[in-house]
Design a protein that fits this description.
single chain, about 180 residues, alpha+beta, Aminopeptidase, 7-stranded mixed sheet, binds coenzyme A
């Protein structure tokens, strides 16, 4: 296996052309189509911020990414975790998408991207109130997120993504 010393993370610039972006394949058709067709527009329109993992040994190939936005959780969604203790609308961040190219999975890069996510959220939380980090997990990724400390907000239903959450204090400890 090749070492990962050539990989580096940068803030996605929608005005730049990334080698391999259109061919990016993490094994999830929805995410692949998003990267190929919608990512540039979404970032350009300030609907999310994206950070990309690039392979400096291969023309800075696009091999991983995540996108973040702000989000509001309605109190009943958090009821199992915080019975009665939160306002009706709870401000938080949302991890919209995360992906690592198939040939690079299982080498700790998903975890590396999540470490970067935690750093960004903590930095943002020093400027604006953020109660935690929310995401919708595909069935395949639930164990990955549980392993990082996220908890499911609803019972799993295989036909739907599972909403998951991490409180900002947990996130601070997990980084
Ligand atoms: C989910 C994904 C980002 C994980 O990336 P990765 O680089 O393979 O993950 P890592 O190598 O950093 O794994 C970190 C840990 O999670 C575990 N893990 C990774 N993927 C897992 C999965 N699908 N199920 C259970 N555990 C998983 C690893 O075994 C590892 O555990 P360890 O630290 O105890 O050894 C990657 O598989 C991917 O891009 N999948 C397709 C897209 C996707 O599902 N995105 C999430 C949509 S919500």
């Amino acid at each position: 296996m090749r070492g990962n010393e050539w990989l580096y993370l940068e803030c996605y610039n929608p005005e730049k052309t990334y080698y391999g972006q259109k061919q990016f394949d993490c094994g999830n058709a929805l995410i692949n189509a998003f990267v190929a067709k919608s990512l540039k527009k979404q970032v350009r329109e300030n609907l999310s911020r994206c950070f990309v993992l690039l392979d400096g040994s291969d023309n800075d190939r696009f091999i991983g990414f995540y996108t973040l936005s702000s989000f509001t959780i309605l109190a009943p969604e958090l009821a199992a975790l915080e019975p009665g203790g939160v306002p009706a609308r709870v401000p938080c961040s949302r991890l919209i998408m995360l992906g690592v190219a198939i040939g690079f999975q299982g080498q700790g890069l998903g975890r590396r991207l999540m470490k970067s996510v935690f750093e960004k959220i903590l930095a943002a939380s020093e400027q604006i109130g953020l109660y935690g980090l929310y995401l919708d997990a595909d069935a395949y990724a639930i164990e990955f997120y549980s392993g990082l400390g996220f908890v499911a907000l609803r019972t799993r239903d295989a036909s739907l993504p599972t909403p998951m959450f991490m409180h900002i204090d947990t996130l601070r400890r997990a980084r």
